[in-house]
C-alpha cells in the first residue's frame, strides 16, 4: 500500500509537469504565430519602403538631372548676356566717340557758318554803302547831263530854226550816253570793291565744298 501511494505520487508530478509544458507549448505557439504575423507585416512594410525608396531615388535622379540641365542653360544664358553686355559696352563706347566727333564737327561747322554769316553781313553792308555812293554820284551827274541836254536841245532848236537841213541826233545820243553811264559806273565800282576788298569772302565761299569733302559729308 505505501508503495502504491508512492508510485501514484511520483506519477502526479510528471503529469503536472506535462500539463505545464503543454500550457507553455500553447503559449509559445501563440507567440510564434504572433511573431510570424509580425514578421510578415514587417516584410511587407520593408518591401513597401524599398519600393518607395527606389521611387524617391529615381525621382531625385530625375530632379537632379533637370536641375543640372537648368544650371547648364542658365550658364549659357549668363554667357550670352555677358557677351551682349560686352558688345553693348563696346557699341556705347563707339557711339560716345562718334558723338564727340559729331560735336567737334558741329562746332567747326557752327564757327564756319558764323564766319560766313559775318562775312555775308559785311558784304551786304558794303553793298548798301556802294549803292548809296552810286546813287549819290549818279544824281549830280544826271543833273549836269540834263542841264547840258537842255542847253544842247535849245541850241539845236535854234540851229534848226536857222538851218532846217540839220538833223537833231545829238540829244538822243547824249541821252543814251547819260542813261548808260550810271550802270556801267556802278558795275565798275562793284567789281573793283569785290576784287580788292572781298577776295577773302570769295575764297571762304569756294572753300566750303573742300571742307565738306574733308569731313566726310556727301
Automatic annotation (TrEMBL):
Keyword Methyltransferase: no
Compositional bias annotation for Low complexity: 142-156
GO MF entries: JUN kinase binding; kinesin binding; MAP-kinase scaffold activity; signaling receptor complex adaptor activity
Chain coiled-coil ranges: 18-84
Keywords: Coiled coil
Sequence ranges of Polar residues compositional bias: 162-185
Gene Ontology BP, a term: vesicle-mediated transport
Region described as Disordered: 140-187
InterPro entries xrefs: JIP3/JIP4, RH1
Residues of the RH1 domain: 1-45
Gene Ontology cellular component annotations, sorted alphabetically: cytoplasm
Coiled coil as UniProt keyword: yes
PANTHER family: JNK-INTERACTING PROTEIN 3, JNK/SAPK-ASSOCIATED PROTEIN
The protein, known as: JNK-interacting protein 3-like protein
Species for this entry: Leptotrombidium deliense
Amino acid at each position: 500500500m505505501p508503495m502504491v501511494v508512492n508510485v501514484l505520487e511520483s506519477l502526479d508530478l510528471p503529469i503536472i509537469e506535462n500539463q505545464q509544458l503543454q500550457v507553455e507549448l500553447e503559449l509559445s505557439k501563440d507567440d510564434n504565430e504572433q511573431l510570424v504575423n509580425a514578421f510578415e507585416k514587417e516584410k511587407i512594410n520593408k518591401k513597401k519602403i524599398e519600393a518607395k525608396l527606389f521611387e524617391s531615388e529615381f525621382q531625385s535622379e530625375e530632379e537632379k538631372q533637370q536641375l543640372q540641365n537648368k544650371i547648364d542653360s542658365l550658364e549659357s544664358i549668363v554667357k550670352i548676356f555677358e557677351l551682349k553686355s560686352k558688345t553693348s559696352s563696346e557699341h556705347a563706347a563707339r557711339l560716345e566717340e562718334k558723338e564727340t566727333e559729331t560735336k567737334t564737327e558741329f562746332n567747326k561747322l557752327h564757327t564756319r557758318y558764323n564766319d560766313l554769316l559775318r562775312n555775308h553781313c559785311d558784304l551786304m553792308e558794303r553793298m548798301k554803302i556802294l549803292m548809296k555812293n552810286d546813287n549819290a554820284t549818279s544824281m549830280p551827274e544826271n543833273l549836269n547831263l540834263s542841264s547840258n541836254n537842255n542847253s544842247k536841245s535849245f541850241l539845236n532848236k535854234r540851229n534848226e530854226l536857222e538851218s532846217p537841213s540839220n538833223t537833231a541826233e545829238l540829244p538822243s545820243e547824249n541821252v543814251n550816253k547819260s542813261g548808260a553811264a550810271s550802270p556801267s559806273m556802278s558795275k565798275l565800282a562793284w567789281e573793283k570793291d569785290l576784287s580788292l576788298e572781298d577776295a577773302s569772302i570769295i575764297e571762304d565761299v569756294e572753300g566750303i565744298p573742300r571742307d565738306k569733302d574733308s569731313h566726310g559729308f556727301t
